[in-house]
Amino acid sequence: MMAAAVAGQRGVKVVLMDHATKIGEKIRISGGGRCNFTNTALDGGDASPYFVSQNPRFVRSAMSQYTARDFMNLLREHRVRYHEKHKGQLFCDDSAQNIIDVLFAECEKGGVQWRTGCSVTAVHAVNDGSGMRFELETSTAGTWRCAHLIIATGGYSIPAIGASGFGYTLAEQFNHTISPTAPALVPLTFAEWGKQGWTELAGLALPVRIGTAEGKKNMSFDEDVLISHKGLTGPGVLQISSYWQAGAAITLNLQPDVDLECALCQGKVGAKVQLDTALAQLVPNLPKRLLAHLLSKPDFEKIAKHKWADVPDKALKQLAQQVNQWRLMPSGTEGYKKAEVTRGGVAVKELNGGTMESRLHEGLYFVGEVVDVTGWLGGYNFQWAWASGMAAGRSVSD
Ligand SMILES: Cc1cc2nc3c(=O)[nH]c(=O)nc-3n(C[C@H](O)[C@H](O)[C@H](O)COP(=O)(O)OP(=O)(O)OC[C@H]3O[C@@H](n4cnc5c(N)ncnc54)[C@H](O)[C@@H]3O)c2cc1C
């Protein structure tokens, strides 16, 4: 919609085709119905640290041409009220529908024609005498020809509302490489979660430092995690899921502000209390139910009721590690049904970052989630959709 509106307002004749009958469904369901439409961190500085891609620097050009401030200005023009919630995340005061209405109004301004409920089933490159054209076969609107074609079909996430792999298939048809795709911003699952008693703690949320345990560059986030019936979810887990590779471990620091090894080993001298009592005092912010669960594990069960001063440093260090550097091995994710986005996609090295045009096929553009660009949780993905759409919309012609 962003690309269509911008191109239309430049006088280009635009037809927007979508197989969904209701347009902008992901916007409508986003941010708990209030759409986290951008993040103030994307203010024109270097945007690349907030994105996962084979080459995160690819986002710089489009993101500097259209910043969070530009989108905020657009909302102000349309009198949409919004507020900041957490770490620069901007949400509508009223409803995500406001954003859809803005984009729709901008498309109207650009004279965009709509073909909704219309699936693009095939695309061919043809030479009609006046040059190369794309010929589109559609399910309900016959055959169309155009000189410039923008693919904004998103990723695999949430198939129930129209997601399809069409963009990837089309990209491959035009010889593009697809960086491996995987669900991202997604809850992580763990084998034998129930057997280990974690499901009894389902619903428990706590702030942690969650990180990748392996890889060249370790990432970590200070965010909440939530224990669920299948594993872990919540903002911290969604963030780290975008960096997690199957077979790798993650680490959780349940008390980032407390160096528990130091506190336990140094504080025990002359202490008369039991270890479990001392621990509850040293980590008062750790939910009691979680602490009790950790201490019920075979490694700690025996020492929990011992006098703190008598517990050997080796055992205390092990316990501290469980709190400050808990290593967990996810068995998988909850998949595309639950993923907010798809990681991977059309390889960025084959696209022009300033226009989003294919370097392999003139006139073909890829924008938004179908590209190998995945933003952090917090409005980064929508800002990428707006900015990359804007870049393509400014470049296309009839
Ligand atoms: C539950 C949820 C909440 C989210 N919340 C946020 C948030 O708060 N902030 C944020 O920044 N991001 C959020 N995201 C991510 C964000 O929605 C996406 O990154 C963004 O929508 C991508 O935009 P897009 O235009 O590339 O693709 P999409 O929004 O997925 O749009 C693709 C469109 O292409 C159509 N299409 C697909 N195949 C075909 C075909 N063959 N023919 C015709 N049409 C086709 C689809 O029907 C769809 O309308 C959320 C995602 C989900 C699933």
Automatic annotation (TrEMBL):
This is Ferredoxin--NADP reductase. Keywords: FAD, Flavoprotein. Residues 1-394 form the RsdA/BaiN/AoA(So)-like Rossmann fold-like domain. InterPro entries: BaiN-like, BaiN-like_dom_sf, FAD/NAD-bd_sf, RsdA/BaiN/AoA(So)-like_dom, RsdA/BaiN/AoA(So)_Rossmann. Its cofactor is FAD. The keyword Ribosomal protein does not apply. The keyword Flavoprotein applies. Residues 183-341 form the RsdA/BaiN/AoA(So)-like insert domain. Pfam families: HI0933_like (PF03486), HI0933_like_1st (PF22780). It comes from Ephemeroptericola cinctiostellae.
